[in-house]
Specification:
Blueprint (H helix, E strand, L loop, with lengths): L5 H16 L4 H17 L6 H20 L3 H38 L17 H17 L8 H9 L12 H4 L11 H33 L6 H32 L17 H7 L2 H15 L6 H19 L3 H23 L18 E4 L2 E4 H21 L3 H10 L9 H24 L11 H18 L13
Antiparallel strand pairs: 1-2
Amino acid sequence: MLFNSGVFLKFFAAFLLLYWLARNSLAARNVLVVAASYLFYGWWDYRFLSLIFISSLVDYAAGLGLTHYQKPGQRKAVLASALSANLVILGFFKYYDFFAGSLAALLAQWGVPFNVQTLGIILPVGISFYTFQTMSYSIDVYRGEIGATRNLLNFLAYVSFFPQLVAGPIERGRHLLPQFEKTQTITLPMLEEGVWLMLWGMFKKVALADNLAPLVDLVYQNSAFSAPTVILGTVAFAFQIYLDFSGYSDIARGTALVLGFDIMMNFNLPYIAKSLREFWQRWHISLSTWLRDYLYIPLGGNRRGKLRTGGNLLTTMVLGGLWHGAAWNFVLWGAWHGLGLVGQRVLGGTARRSVAPLAHADESLARVSLRVSPLRVSASQLSWALTMLFVLYGWLLFRARSVDQIVVMTRALGDFSAPFWIGSLGLNLCAFAAPVVLMEIYQAKHGGYQAPLKLPGFARAVLEGLLLLGIILFWEKDKVPFIYFQF
């Protein structure tokens, strides 16, 4: 069931009515949430409901086991069992065909006959998201950061909560689970923010991202490339994936707020970042913080010397890339960002006065100016430009259909010939990128992501009316799935 579909609108309207009737009974409300969430998820393929239920039971039982057993060895065994069960399920459905096919291809290059049968497994929607969410609960209980719940209904609601079930944000038990253990008070500010987020998120998806998709496909499904087409196609994809994924996250947060729940912000103006580290503090925040807390820090973080720190960063980002999909381009994308973060850390330690995007540069650096005739470019602006160039090449790695296409498109960056349709592509890119660029400039200058909520009532009503008009005008009969559903 897609947010950008008439079916969801009917589903949500019916749910709101029942939710209002059940608002005073905690048990009835949570039963309704679980039932509606399972219906929402089963709309794609009811057979995969068993997976989310099994994953929920595994970590619910792990929480009880971690509470019951007190000896360190026993608790480690319980946690290891839960994590292994989750990773086996995730690995089988998401990575079996990838690793089996890659192994066969590698051995074939060495002349070793190896017959392996790929299974053509259908990837369950959102499996990476809810698996990480349940795993974080077990880890937090093990660490003593949260108490285990004994209420299975509450836990099922936490795992399956439909606004963020299939594409995040990846919630933590210590934040979301307690909200299912008490009745929620829905305030007027929550409703106002929820409506704004749903409208803005839907506008970004149906009016902007879905109209940029054909431009991106025109480039990346082509067989002939040149620098102008690669650059424009990649910039269009940078906007498309941001608008698509942040649009989903906004709708999810807005829907949750209307129901009285608070889920974490997943994007915070990432394209204003002036360093790669800052970009990852603003992009897919729920995943980047998950990787930091449950992978990077347990590996040793930055506590075991520069060489080990670099290895931990690279390992974390490569696995983060692989989390996105079972393909080598995602591995390369993760490695690209990992190497970039390592390089940034090295430069930050040896050249603090450099104008490169450094994580710990002096604040005075932003006031340094370089003369680039006939313009003056500040170090801050240069840091932003270099960061965005790095991020954009990463998006080429991410979007490319194969490693061979990455090589061809990279080589094409030296060819400045342009096809006849390049002008049309550029105009369309400007038209559909302009609304979000203007909005985010305003947000960056007026207090951040919630700046539109501070507008006078009439101005905000006009803005929301325009968004609604845009949604209606661009609403397509053939609904385009959100990009991150495939992960």
